[in-house]
Amino acid sequence: MQHSRRTLIHSALVATALLAGGTALAADPAKKQIVIGTTVGDFGDQVKQGIRPILEKQGYKVKLVEFTDYVRPNLALQEGSLDVNVFQHRPYLDKFSAQHKLRLTPVFQVPTAPLGIYAGKRKSLAEVKLGSSVSLPNDPSNLARALVMLADLGWISLKPGINPVTASERDIAANPRKLVLRPLEAAQLPRSRADVDFAVINGNYAVSSGIRLTTALYQEKSNAYINVGVLKSADVNKPWARDVIAAYQSPEFKAYALKRFPGYKLPQVWGK
Length: 272
Description:
This protein has 272 residues and is α/β, with parallel strands linked by helices. 36% of the residues lie in helices and 21% in strands. The strands form three sheets. The chain has a five-stranded mixed β-sheet, with helices on both faces. Strands 9-6-10-5-11 form a five-stranded mixed β-sheet. Helix 2 links the parallel strand 1 (33-39) and strand 2. Helix 2 (42-57) crosses helix 8 (239-248). The protein is elongated, with a radius of gyration of 22 Å. The N and C termini lie far apart (57 Å).
């Protein structure tokens, strides 16, 4: 009897040691690997440096797939080659999901570099002139954000009563400086600065191109575009999905993000 009791205690200590060493079985034994898709840059870094270590301690394997566009990550998630994606804000997700009849659900927010206007051939906002060229994202949601920014600056005006989330070039009421707008794929915007006077660049692509956010000539005012982590709607309540959500909302990830991404817009769940 005494021997059996010692054996049980020894087994419990071994199990505890395995848990502490990060070699335990995954919390969800049916899901050994989690595949996370992001765009290249800061969201990928967040996975590699902040999220992967947390999930691997729980016994999961974490595979990162990085994209250079805003179309494939949602399609890949719906098709099942990804388990989670992190690259988009809620307005873009809602519109894309409706257009493509996808069943995807946003489940957490992530630190997000804001959209900004950066110098191209012109080095300050005061240098804008008649016919200045401005490159900006060509996907509808981020194009709307860029147009709202230009309106906030007073460079253009938008028609009264329009929905700022869906604004397009057709909604421009006045363009007194006759700005030449050049919509481009978001990943091309950092390189476009050599060819335009100003470039409106998505924060993640600015960072991944080595552009410091503090060099932006202007940043968007809205907090509506904090990016989200997205799952297939059918997966939201699965144990592995809850573990991913918990990792992104954990004190460990928050501490990492506050140190690594100063100046970013932060998840609302973290407070101020």
